[in-house]
Amino acid sequence: MFDAIDTNALRPLLDTLTSLGAAFILGSVIGFERQVRQRTAGLRTNTLVAVGAAVFVHIAGRLTGHEGAVHVMAYVVSGIGFLGAGAIMKEGANISGLNTAATLWGSAAVGACAGASMIGEATIATGFVLAANTLLRPVVNRINRQPVNEQSAEAVYTVYVICRRVVQAEVREKMTELLEAATYPVRDMAQHAFGPTDAEIAATLYASAVEAEELDHVMTLLEAETGVLQAFWNASAED
Hints:
By secondary structure, the protein is α+β, with helices and mostly antiparallel strands. It has helices at residues 2-7, 10-36, 43-64, 66-87, 98-115, 119-134, 136-145, 168-181, 212-223, and strands at residues 89-91, 94-96, 155-164, 186-194, 198-205, 228-237. Helix 3 packs antiparallel against helix 4.
């Protein structure tokens, strides 16, 4: 009983309230910007991440001192890694949610600072997270609108084959064989229905640069295969 009274003395409680209150406010600021943009992890998620990180770090500091708080911070970092992984979606060669996962990581860092009673540092970190998500956005959009410079930028090359569904297994095997023979190994391959009787096979290459004539020749060979209706390739800017 007396231990509980000592632990919950007024001054430590005020210190806890200040740390968690700061984490709540700063996490809400980050989350508000995400909510306005209708991201997967919005106001509540970022606030909870910041407050949760602050609670763990603050309690560890109260119980075992600075060394314990540092150990807990390491677990917070790895734990947020698992949470961020859940926000990342991969569909074929397309990946989304990386910025959401990174923002959650930033919210956890803000909460950890607040939990360690480093309110000033938590406020500064919040400013940088917001700046990355707002001030850099026009810069990214401007860069993305520029034409891709093939001499300085890498690209993702994808080969598409539309064929009869009954021969898609054989076509897929032949597709891999011809691409490897042309020294363009396949990194990822996906296939799905294309109409009632046909299928589309998409093969993403490891290559970040290709010789157009070589790849066109492979397309000609593929189109000569039985059951192949069309073969083509395209390039897109790499993320």
